[in-house]
Amino acid sequence: MAESFSDEVWFIVSEWDYFAKDTVGKQMVRSADSIGANIAEGYGRFHYKENRNFCYFSRGSIIETKGWLKKSNTRKLINEEQFQSLFDKLQTIHLKLNAYLKFIGKDNKNKSNPPS
Q1: How far apart are CA 13 and CA 19, in angstroms?
Q2: Do 69 and 83 meet the contact criterion of CB atoms below 8 Å apart?
Q3: What does the alpha-carbon distance between residue 83 and residue 112 come to, in Å, rounded to a whole number?
Q4: Which pick of 14, 38, 49, 65 has the fewest CB atoms within 10 Å?
Q5: In terms of C-beta density within 10 A (0-12 exposed, 13-18 middle, 19 or more buried), how is residue 78 classed?
Q6: What burial class does residue 102 get, using C-beta atoms within 10 Å of its C-beta: 0-12 exposed, 13-18 middle, 19+ buried?
Q7: How far is CA 21 from CA 11, 100, 109, in A?
Q8: DSSP letter for each residue of the chain
Q9: Cα–Cα distance measured from residue 24 to residue 48, given in angstroms and rounded to the nearest whole number
Q10: Mean of all residue pLDDT scores within the chain
Q11: What is the pLDDT of residue 110?
């Protein structure tokens, strides 16, 4: 979900004019890309504690991306329908990540990652 979300953000931002891309666009694409990248990197770590830390970084990127989406909507770079669709997808990713964090936090402190 995080990967397809960041691709969607990329394709939207790629249509903007130079100024919008260079200011809000780059920041929003980077924060959206970081969501999935940090989940993947954390999963690739051997211990749950490291995995959790990267998931926390990912959660921070989710919050940052929500902020960029709000700015993009306010500045009329995306319309209300795009904003709501992207925000809802991001909210779902946020909830799923929180559930995953809860799962890996239960009695798994000294174990390696579960099989994929």
Answers
A1: 11
A2: yes
A3: 38
A4: 14
A5: buried
A6: exposed
A7: 11, 33, 42
A8: -HHHHHHHHHHHHTTS-HHHIIIIIHHHHHHHHHHHHHHHHHHTSSBHHHHHHHHHHHHHHHHHHHHHHHHHHHTTSS-HHHHHHHHHHHHHHHHHHHHHHHHHHSS-TTSBPPP-
A9: 34
A10: 92
A11: 45
For helices 26-43 and 2-13, give the axis angle rounded to 10 degrees: 160
* pTM of full prediction above 0.70: yes
Phi, psi of 108 (to 5 degrees): -120, 20
Quick one: pLDDT at residue 114? 52
Q: What is the mean pLDDT of residues 100-114?
A: 67
Whether residue 116 is predicted with pLDDT greater than 60 in this model: the reply is: no
Instruction: Tell me how far CA of residue 61 lies from CA of 3, 45, 65, 66, in angstroms.
Output: 13, 19, 6, 9
Q: Which residues pair with 112 in a beta bridge?
A: 47
